[in-house]
Amino acid sequence: MPTNLPGNQFQTFSHFAPDTLFHIARLEEHVPQLNHSHKPHAHPFYSVTWVQEGSGIHVNNGKAYEVAPNQLFFLAPGKMHSWQLSADTKGYNLFFDSDFCRGTSGHLLYRYPFFHANKEHPLLQVTDPDALFADIFDFIFSEYQSKQANRFEVILSALHIVLELSDRLYHEQWNGNGTYLYDRIRQYEQLIEHQFLTVRMVSDYAAQMNVTPHYLNQLCKKVVGKTASQLYHERIVLEARFLLAYTSDSVKEIGFRLGFQDPSYFVRFFRKNTGETPADFRQRKNHQR
C-alpha cells in the first residue's frame, strides 16, 4: 500500500507487482489514473517513461515540461512530479528499484545526468526515426508479460541498453561543460565498482584520478549533491543488502567481508545508512518472499 508523506503521496508499484524490483505497464492503460492523481507525488524507485504518442504536461521537481511524441522522461526516487496527459497518449511506464540493477548499473544510476531534475534536463526528445527506443520498450514489455525463465536477467540487459543509449543521446542534445564533470564522476564510480572491497580510502581513489581528495569531494557534491565518502558508502551498503538478502552468511561474516573488523560497528554503519539493522533488513526481505 502507498505510504502517505505529509501533504503529498509517496507511491510504490507493489500493488502492480508485489515482491519484485521491476514493473512495466502500457501508458495508455494508466492515463485516467495519472490524470486523476494530478497532485504532486513521489516514488521510492526510478522510472523511465516512453511517450510514443500524445501530448500533455509533466511537472518534475516544480518545473513543467511539455509532453510530445517520441519523448523519454526520467524520474529519480523522491522527486515530486505529476502528469496531465491527453486521452490518446500511448507508450510505457517503466519502474525499477536500484537493487534491480545490481551488477550492471546499480549504485551508478545517479551518474546519469537525466536523473538529476534539479540540475539537469529530465527529458529527451528522440528525433532519429531509426532510434531503437520504441522497439526496446516493446521487447521489454513482451518479455515481462511472458514470465519465461530468466526474464528479469533479459530485461535488465535491455534496460541497461535504454540507459546507455539515453546517456549518449543526452550528451548529444545537451553537450556542455557539465558532461566533463559527469564523466569524472563516472570514472570515480567505475573505480569504486572494481575496487570497493580492497580500496577503502577516498584519498586512494583520488590519487588514481590524479586529483586531490578535496577536489574529488567538491566534484561529487557539485554533480550529485553527495560527498565522495557517501558515494563509496552507498556501494558498501548496496553490497551488504545483497549479501543479507541472497546469502546465508551471518551478519558478522558479511561485515568482515566488507572490511568491518568490529561486527557492532558494521551494524551501526548499516543502520545509519538504511534506518534498520542488518538483522531487521534480512528478516523483512525473507518475509517478503
From TrEMBL:
What InterPro entries does the annotation carry?
AraC-bd, Homeodomain-like_sf, HTH-like, HTH_AraC, RmlC-like_jellyroll, Tscrpt_reg_AraC-type_HTH
User: Gene3D superfamilies attached here?
Assistant: Homeodomain-like, Jelly Rolls
Q: Could you tell me the keywords of this UniProt record?
A: DNA-binding, Transcription, Transcription regulation
Source domain of life is Bacteria
Q: Pfam families recorded for this chain?
A: AraC_binding, HTH_18
Domain HTH araC/xylS-type: where? 186-284
Query: Any idea which GO molecular function terms this record carries?
Result: DNA-binding transcription factor activity; sequence-specific DNA binding
- Does the record carry Cytoplasm as a key word? no
Q: Which PROSITE patterns match?
A: HTH_ARAC_FAMILY_2
Q: Which PANTHER family match?
A: ARAC-FAMILY TRANSCRIPTIONAL REGULATOR, TRANSCRIPTIONAL REGULATORY PROTEIN
Q: What is this protein called?
A: Helix-turn-helix domain-containing protein
